[in-house]
Structures are given as structure tokens and as C-alpha cells.
Specification:
single chain, 518 residues, alpha/beta, Purple Acid Phosphatase, chain A, domain 2, OB fold (Dihydrolipoamide Acetyltransferase, E2P), six-stranded mixed sheet, 15 helices, 21% strand, binds fe (iii) ion, binds zinc ion
Length: 518
């Protein structure tokens, strides 16, 4: 909003001419933020549209400042004003800065990659690769069952079968198939490294049957029950799940991270103005003191996939693109991110729209496509999924392709509620268990989609819906996006959440949602 003309124009006069009363506090705001004529004229249009005749400080802030959705304040505002091309990267003294100091500037970055698929693009998709993938999945998740109170003494399927009929047995296996019988029982087939066995969940066990609706193919579960001929009559079954009573990690510093995704740069529907408002806020060029205090603590931005809209992702996509060249889409992304203040570090993980191999896991967007991003010191390119820590706080970022697998397989799950599928991933300790029906899985020798270690923060995107929650001490975020309703979404009656940004304080784990939308 900086301008040299602000003192030359007669601001109260401009309002008077339009029959609008400007109160003293609001006038002070115009001076403080150095508003120029164009901005005032645009503001005037907003007033007319909304039949506002008296401008108070609240009206001013409603229009010019971002909203805090889940904080104490609730303010509404419309987007305006682009950054000029030659925005300085330095944090030169700005009149707009209302906070006394910028905590995120005083803290050195602390990013540690714990598990990432970078540089491991060696899968040929052969049958043997799938065998070793499932072996690895079984080995990793059965290890989690060894810590289980109920099932830690499980035995191999072969050893279980060697017992006398009717004896109680405990096994852990991969679900090869799941069927509902004519009588309404659920029949599973489980497999481990030693063999296979059927498992029956009977209608007589109502609560167990209700829980069985969450069982999906190719996940690893533990079962206990009575042995029959090549079958276990299940008394109980368990998911590997997250252990209770875990201490979550906290940052020693009072700083925060933005968890966003689905920017879709290059799409006609990319809300560039909203995105620029977000950047201006991070630069401490807008916002009241309370809002700037939140901005001043932001040290990290995690972009969880679909950074660009891509090219040729679906038929006739070119009609919905304003940038039809993939290289230019990443150039534009780099330009936008270069406006960020230099104390902020950005972690970029790919999604299904990005220019890297499709299928999970995805290696980071290659340098060949995103040269400018690789050239920036504060940008860190990671894989999808990626497991890393920020000042000791463990974060798992996964774009979320498999959310749709859960929506189609678990009755009652809906697209506008992304948190229940995320909870299932944690319970199953796997990001995309279902193979061959939905999410394309690339068979690496090791299963990168297993959740071996419990994160403190688990982020997904992909649905373009905002959601947040807590499951057994893990903070869950689905980020929403920066793309207004596409024709595809309109056809399916999906209204996306746009330009709403979740922010987590890494010391307190408090979450605030800021709205930069219209
Ligand atoms: Fe997306
Ligand atoms: Zn996506």
C-alpha cells in the first residue's frame, strides 16, 4: 500500500464527494497505511456495492486486512492491490510494521529430513518389486504390533494353524480380500510371510462388525479368535494405531509454520490476488497488530503439493490454463515466492498436478522443471510424502491422493470432511494401503507410505477443503487451496475452501486459520 502520493491527495474530500462519511480513526488508518488514489477508488466501489455510508476503523480493517477465522477476531475483507514487479526482497523499514520485533527473524532455521524419497527413483514396477514392497509393509507394521498390549504375542499364520481346533490364536496379516457373506458376516483373507488364513467377523459380534467397515484391502491388521479349519472365528481385531499417552514435541521457540497446499499456479482459477495478500501480510505490510504478531512469528511455509496446475493432467486442461507452459508455471511460482520475506523458509512437496512421476511416493519436482525454485536458498524441495522436523516438531506432509480411496471404500466418509480419512491413515499406520483401486502405487523396495514413526503434525491437501483436528495427540490439517471452483468441481457440486491458511504455533501447537479470500 506504500505510496508517496498519500499526503498530496485530499482523502476526506474524496469521500465527501461520494457522500460517504469518514471518521477520524479510519482517516488515521489511511494515512498510516499510506493509501493511494487507486486504492481509495477501489475501496469506494466496495462501499457502494455494500451500501456503506460511514467508514469506521472496523470497516477499513474489514476490507484491507486478512481475517482470523479461528482466533478471537473475525474480520472480513476483499482482495485488492498487486505487488509491483520490483518488490524489494530486503526487510527495509516499513511504515506498516506495527510489531516491536520479528521473532522468526531472530531464530535460525532448523529443518531435519527424517524420511524422504529423494534420489530413489529406481523402481521398474516389476512383479518382484511388488513382492518386496508388501514384504516390507508387513515387516514394518508387524513391528508396531510387537508393542501392542493385546497382540504383542501374535504368531505366524503357519504356527497358528498348527494349534488344535478351537484354541485361541493371535495373528497379524495383510488383508488380501474382504467380502460380506449372504448372512451379513464379514469374511477376510489374511496373509503373512508364512501363509494365508480366512477370518470371520460374525454378525453376532455387533460392535466388531461395525468396526469392520473400516477394514480396507492390503492393510495390515491383527486378529485374535478361535481356530477352525483354515479359519479364525474372530473375537477381536486391531489396527496398528497410534500409541496413547505419547508426549508431543514442541519447539523451544515461540514461532509458527503455515501449512498450505494446492496453489495451482497457471490455472485460470488460481487466486493470485489472494495469494499476494497472503504474501503482503507475511511481509508485515497489512494487518492490525494482532494479525501482524501472528505473521511475525512465521518461520516456515509447507506447501503440500499441487504447487502448479500442470499441463495435460486431464483432457482439455489447456482451456483452463492461463499459463500453458509447465516451465513458466514454475517460473511464476518462484517469482511469487521470491516476494516472501527472507526470514521465511519454504518446504515444497509435490502433488498429482506437479511435474514429477505420478503415483505414490513421488520424488521431489526435478530441477529441470523448477530451476528457479532450486536456485533460491530458502526453498527446500522434498518428496511426497515427506517426514521432517521443524525445531524438533515432527511433521508428515502427504498430498493425499488416497483420501479418495477411503471415500469410496468406507461408508459415511464425505469429501467435505477430510479429517476422518486422515485418522484412518494414522490408525492403519499407512498413507495409501489400498493397492490397484485408486491411488497409483509405485513399488519401491521399501514402503515409503508406511507411517513408521508417529508425527506431531500430519498434513494433507488434494481435497481443496479446510479441515483440522487432533487424533491421539497428533494435529491433523487438510489445507484447502488457492484455486476457486473449477468446472470439474462445479459438476460434482464441490465448493472448495479458498485462500484460508492454517497456521500452527510450533511451541504451543495452537492453530489459527487466516482467510485471505474475497
Ligand atoms: Fe489440488
Ligand atoms: Zn491434488
Amino acid at each position: 500500500m506504500a505510496s508517496t502520493q498519500s499526503c498530496k491527495i485530499n482523502i476526506p474530500g474524496m469521500f465527501l464527494d461520494e457522500g460517504v462519511l469518514l471518521n477520524e480513526e479510519a482517516y488515521a488508518k489511511f494515512l498510516e497505511d499510506a493509501a493511494n488514489e487507486d486504492i481509495i477508488l477501489e475501496f469506494m466501489t466496495h462501499l457502494k456495492k455494500n451500501n456503506i455510508f460511514i467508514v469506521t476503523k472496523d470497516v477499513y480493517e474489514d476490507y484491507f486486512y486478512p481475517r482470523i477465522e479461528s482466533g478471537q477476531q473475525k474480520e472480513s475483507v476483499e482482495q485488492r492491490a498487486e505487488l509491483p514487479d520490483e518488490v524489494p526482497k530486503s526487510e527495509k523499514k516499513r511504515k506498516s510494521i506495527k510489531v516491536k520485533h520479528i521473532p522468526s527473524k531472530d531464530v535460525d532455521k532448523d529443518i531435519k529430513i527424517i524420511k524422504d524419497v529423494s534420489g530413489k527413483d529406481d523402481s521398474e514396477g516389476k512383479f518382484e518389486d511388488f513382492l518386496s514392497l508388501f514384504k516390507d509393509r508387513y515387516t514394518r507394521i508387524s513391528k508396531i504390533f510387537k508393542q501392542h498390549r493385546e497382540l504383542r504375542d501374535f504368531v505366524s499364520i503357519k504356527n497358528a494353524k498348527a494349534n488344535e481346533l478351537k484354541s485361541q490364536v493371535k495373528i497379524v496379516g495383510i488383508v488380501r480380500s474382504k467380502k460380506t457373506t449372504k448372512n451379513g458376516n464379514v469374511m477376510l483373507e489374511l496373509e503373512d510371510l508364512s501363509g494365508t488364513i480366512k477370518v470371520l467377523v460374525s454378525t453376532k459380534k455387533e460392535r466388531l462388525l461395525e468396526r469392520a467397515k473400516y477394514i480396507v484391502c492390503d492393510e495390515v491388521i491383527g486378529v485374535s479368535g478361535a481356530l477352525g479349519e483354515d479359519i479364525i472365528f474372530s473375537n477381536n481385531f486391531e489396527f496398528p494405531d497410534i500409541a496413547l499417552g505419547r508426549n508431543r514435541n514442541v519447539s523451544p521457540y515461540d514461532i509458527g509454520a503455515v501449512f498450505t497446499s494446492d496453489v495451482h499456479v497457471g490455472s485460470n482459477n488460481f487466486m493470485e490476488k489472494s495469494f499476494l495478500r497472503f504474501i503482503k501480510w507475511l511481509r508485515l505490510e497489512t494487518g492490525n497488530e494482532k494479525q501482524q504478531e501472528i505473521a511475525s512469528k512465521i518461520k516456515y511455509i509447507v506447501i503440500c503439493g499441487d504447487v502448479v496446475d500442470g499441463v495435460g493432467i486431464y483432457p482439455n486442461q489447456d482451456k483452463e490454463l492461463c499459463i500453458t507452459d509447465i516451465y513458466k508455471q514454475y517460473e511464476k511460482t518462484a517469482q511469487l515466492l521470491s516476494y516472501l520475506p527472507d526470514w521465511i523458509e519454504v518446504i515444497v512437496s509435490p502433488g498429482n498436478h506437479d511435474a514429477t512421476r505420478s503415483g505414490n511416493p513421488q520424488i521431489p519436482i526435478p530441477k529441470a522443471f523448477a530451476y528457479d525454485l532450486y536456485d533460491m536458498d530458502n526453498i527446500h524441495m522434498v518428496s511426497n510424502p515427506s517426514f521432517f522436523s521443524l525445531h524438533g516438531v515432527k511433521c508428515l506432509a502427504y498430498h493425499g491422493d488416497s483420501i479418495f480411496d477411503f471415500l469410496s471404500q468406507v461408508p459415511g466418509f464425505e469429501i467435505n470432511k477430510p479429517i476422518p480419512p486422515m485418522i484412518e491413515m494414522l490408525r492403519k499406520r499407512h498413507l495409501a494401503p489400498v493397492y490397484g483401486k485408486g491411488t497409483q502405487i509405485i513399488p519401491e523396495t521399501s514402503d515409503y507410505l508406511c507411517i513408521d514413526e508417529t508425527p506431531d503434525i500430519f498434513q494433507t491437501g488434494h481435497t481443496h477443503m479446510n479441515g483440522n483436528g487432533v487424533y491421539r495427540g497428533v494435529t491433523l490439517i487438510n489445507s484447502g487451496g488457492w484455486q476457486s471452483q473449477t468446472s470439474f468441481q462445479k459438476m460434482r457440486n464441490i465448493t472448495p475452501d479458498v485462500a484460508k491458511v492454517p497456521i500452527i504455533n510450533l511451541q504451543t501447537h495452537n492453530l489459527v486459520l487466516m482467510n485471505f479470500g474475497d
